[in-house]
Records
---
Amino acid sequence: MKRILVVDDDRLMVEFISLCLERASYSVETAFNGVDGLAKAKSFKPDLLVLDLMMPDMHGFDVCEELRREGGPAGLKILISSGKSYEVDKKAAKRLGADGFITKPFTIEQLMAAVDGLLAS
Amino acid sequence: MNRPRVEFWGTRGSIPSPGPKTLIYGGNTSCVCIRWGDEVLICDAGTGIRPLGFHLQNSGGPASGHVFIGHTHWDHIQGFPFFFPAYMPQNTWAIHSAKGVGESFETIFRRQMGINYFPVEVGDMAARLEFSQVSGRPFEAGPVKVSTIYTNHPGICVGYRFQMGDAAVVYLTDHETHWTHMGRSEYSERLDREVADFCRGADLLICDSQYTDAEYEKKRGWGHSRWRDTVALGVSAEVKRLALFHHDPERSDADVDAIVAQALELLGKSKSGVECFAAREGQTIQL
């Protein structure tokens, strides 16, 4: 079973994403800020990280950068999930090591297409 | 302690815009000074910080304090190399902002004074400069309680709320209203409500209002708000005073006056008690 870590300070969003992923039989772990997210990424060793950007304590860009600098779990894919849809932010995410970017709000179908696509690649 | 006083030293967005059409509202980029007792809080270091610096150094009062940078786009930092109090050894300035994309705030801030950009480096400024990165959690700047919120702007940008005794001032620029940017949805409305909650009940909200409706149609996604959405924010957040701020560099004094007239008409129809005005360089508000 593929493992997915969802990191977002928006509890409603975490609940929604987790529900979608669990229904698709993924094993899901959650964190509600960047610092905890980074720690869980190291201990839970997910195949995919669904990562918010604008979080307290540690911005999603920093989590992404830190994981890539340290190597992170082997084969880890990072999907940025953010309400920000500026092109410059998408470019920055890619530069910092993200594999995909999905703009909130998204449908279940859009989320699953992004997740399944990254895990299949 | 007395109630805070707010001084506008630069009200323009994007780039300085001096000239005969901007004599009233001013051409200097973003810089606001809040004085509360001996506390000096400066919001942004656009070109308005240069005249503010001379004023602080020459007025005999404190020339030390805090500088809060919303983000490091040029119009918010370009005045700092000319901030005279930073050259005086007896002064101390704490400079706060969020971490930038892939680089620390201090690294980015220092770079604009690198040898290829300016003849004096930050390290050669004689004042004691202490850099700190805001984390998104509330913190204290002396007796002032400071909280922050991420704004909707390209890159990483924060707005500040300063609680000074029973008085609150919110400085929120650069920010694009969520629903106009991403479309109306439960999600975008929730994000806009979070912004309103951050501003709730402030004695003064200083807020991005760079565009007219027509301009916004061409500049959606540039990270700035229409003035009418800023007015709506002021009403929804039930602030006492609203300063329309970060005027577009193309905006003449007459244009700004026309916007204020429309804003007051809008507020009149809504029967809101918000006192709205356009921030003007040289203006002082005693809360």
Note: Chain A touches chain B through 22 residues (CB under 8 Å).
---
Amino acid sequence: MNGFKTILAGAALLAAPALTLAPAGAAEPIKVGIALSQSGNLADSAEHYKKAVELWRDQVNARGGLLNRPVELVLYDDRSDPATAARLYERLITNDNVDLLVSPWGSASTATATAVAEKHKRVMINSGGASEKIHQRNFKHIFQSAAPISAYVEGIGPVAEKFGLKTMDIISRDYPAARDMEVALNKIAKDRNIKIEKAEYFPAGTSDYSSYLAQAKQSNPDIWISVGYPNEAIEMVRQFRANNYLPKLFVHNGASIDDFVKAAGKDAEYAVGMSLYEPVLKTKGNAEFVKAYKDKYGAEPGYYSGFGYAGVTVLEEAVRKTGSLDQDKLRETLSTMETDTVLGHHKVDPKTGLQVGVKGLLVQIRDGKRAIIYPEELKTADAVIPMPAWANR
Amino acid sequence: MPVFELLIAGILLGGLYALMACGLNLVFGVMRIINFAHGDLLAVGALTTVSIVTGLHLPFYVAIVVVPLLTAALGLAMQVLVLRRLADGPMIMSLLATFALSTILVNLSILIWGGGYRGLPGVLGGSVHLLGLDVALSRLVSFLVAMAVTLLVWWFLQSTRFGRAIRSVSQAPELAVINGISIDAVRNVTFALGAAMAGLAGVLLAPTFASDPQLGARFGIKAFAVIIVGGMGSYPGAMAAALLLGVLEVFGGYWFGQVIGSAMLFLVMLVVLLVRPRGLLGMGVRA
């Protein structure tokens, strides 16, 4: 019994300094609720998103908090399952009474989570769902800080025009993001007079591209563009090389992931990746973000982290501007607010909440690093297109 | 249509499939074990190869020697610790056990190598100009090795003393015991040999494909299709089936797209199961 009392007294002593450190007159923290995947197939990428959000919490508290109140995160694990995500946001809203909501990581969970927030008339920042369908449901309380799917490929048009590329083959893993991207590419092709000769989808698990290579050797498309997983990008360039084939421009979102350069080595050179965030970006606050992130976690932030950080930056700005946590007032602020984040300029369509400010990037692998080649105002190197033939490297 | 080019591509792809199927076939032929962990041993082989070549900066041929030995040891451990104890039980027991071992191997690999993708830049990366075509060097090598290994195993089983012992264990275990053959020893060696072949396949896949702990799931299923079509336990059958499936996949993909191309493999497998369940040249499954 005595021992127990000692422990209690000790705990009280430990707690005391923490209490006195809190900003004056602000005992009650602002609670920010997020459910994100800490297990399941999205756990790896969501971990980076979470790290960025936790970094922001520490930074905002070091700055004296938000509205003079400390910020506290309420985190749950949605197990990479959209139905679980919906249930957890129900709980965050009705049970935990959180003050602010940030979306989960990934379009699938964000689609269900945003529906719950809208039902409760609660503002939510969509910082993890790129799918444009999330914002085609007449929701009034959801504001996207993440880049929408169409931003991923918007650089293709200008780059193709600049280098006189006229034909394009879409050869992609069959999953929803790729189908969304085809819609965006079709629009670009129409506007820029590019001919899409083929849109082919292969099933998950495909590792051999012999039949596409045989076709491409005959039809010689200027652009070979693909959306999918990094292993597919690695296997495509290795098989290009092994078959002594190369399109003028090879674009794959997987080419902007670190694994691509490591696994494909010299064969990765001159491949182009779609990207939304790079640590070298000269966007507002990015240098400071990269430094703080490196100091805390010992590695550079990737685009998952960039998405997370941009989301909470927008949220913080909106709360400061509004001066309260009133959901209606916050909604009004967010529908017209423009600001700058590590991703770029944040601006939403006031009607749908769809992000319209953030620009997609194109990066090209040069000397084992990603160089930004689009947009012009952010570029760190001039594009080399057509990619030099294997024999001339 | 570039018929000749597609044919070569299909045959080379078939060579890869034959290589993957080889060890699986041996283990089934002798032990009647359907080894679900085969693809994961292959993944361990590929990832170890990457570590040896890009991590330790040793030449590729070191991996060709070391990796099969390593996976053989792993296979032997699986056999001695788990599968041997289930040898007399119904087939479903060993099937479930290899499924469990597969899950364990995948997760151990994630712990060791992480969840990302790795590769072997610079090893057998280029092409050779043969018969007017640019042929992938890595695939040509894999194809030749697959041929050699298949022939070697076949010769070993047909013509060596130990090979005959292995066959007698699979065909008439009681008689084998009477003749003084240690069934346990034969089974241990067979499983280790099968695992070594998975490792070798992993070494040769590493230059062509991206390697990750879940590689087995992408390729294992194709190896199963090969031995089902070829006939479980038959080496010439597996070789023929592998080449057939490779060629069908590439031509199917060219004509109808890769969705149909990949489906071809399984369509043929279904037809074989319905029409000729023992496979093209197989011995069939005995209860």
Note: The CA atoms of residues 231 and 283 of chain B lie 7 Å apart.
